[in-house]
Design brief:
Blueprint: H1 2-31, H2 39-72
Length: 74
């Protein structure tokens, strides 16, 4: 189960990277006054990706903490 969570965290990091690239493209579009209605979509993708990554990291920390306490218990 931990492998799936770590893979999901990696996927979320890739989504964040992709969202940042899209955000950069949107910035170029806005900077050169090109028409684009996708700017809010890029920001929403970035926010959702970061939220997903933080949620997965929280779950990983919780599982590692419970796994560590199980090892110490006799």
């Amino acid at each position: 189960m931990m492998i799936y969570l770590k893979a999901a965290a990696l996927l979320a990091l890739l989504l964040i990277a992709a969202a940042l690239v899209l955000f950069g493209l949107a910035y170029v579009i806005v900077a050169f006054d090109l028409p684009s209605g996708l700017f809010p979509v890029f920001i929403a993708i970035a926010a959702a990706s970061i939220g997903l990554y933080m949620m997965i990291l929280g779950e990983l920390r919780k599982r590692e903490k419970s796994h560590a306490t199980q090892r110490v218990s006799p």
